[in-house]
Description:
This is Membrane protein. One of its GO terms (molecular function) is transmembrane transporter activity. It holds the Pfam family ECF_trnsprt. The protein contains nine helices and four strands; from the N terminus they run αββαββααααααα. By secondary structure, the protein is mainly α. The strands form two sheets. A two-stranded antiparallel sheet has the order 1-2.
Amino acid sequence: MDAGQSMGSKTVGRLTVREMTIIALLSAITIVLGLTGYGIINIPPLSVTTLHIPTLIAALVEGPKVGMLVGFVFGCYSLYANFTAPNILSPIFLNPLVSVVPRVIFPLLAFLIFKSIFFKDVKFRLLVAAFLGTCIHTALVMGTIFFLFGQTFAQLTHATMENVGMVILGLSVSHGLPEAIAAAVIVTPIAIALRKTLGKDK
């Protein structure tokens, strides 16, 4: 057993040392992306985010447990960002049901998509999982807003209750599609390299 295998097999609680290291690294990248402004691009009334990318990488390389923990950090940072640098929809995103819960759920679903694709080509599976995982992330966030905070959304955006669904759908497509494309392009090569380094696809 080499040093890398030994390090990866040691456990602290229910996590291996390698898993803890990856969680710490990708969580730090998430926070740095947010603090430097590279992770959030403001396109009113929402913010297009690349902050979900480290979460996707975590899930597709190390599995749902690691992905969900990095996603939790992502959600907590979103909560912090909406508190310290509010935008028009921050009153909604200050609720953890919107800012945190979807960020914990979507990496699990992205991982399940990756595992359920029958093609042997890992690159293709990662590409699809990153794209659809991002779409799911958008759907979870915006769906929660629609079903739980539709009236508040309408008030904040001056939409009517009759067309609030179409407004949310339009924003989901116009913001979510670029995020999904960016995720597929960025996540795929990084995840391939990491999985190869860690011996995931032998």
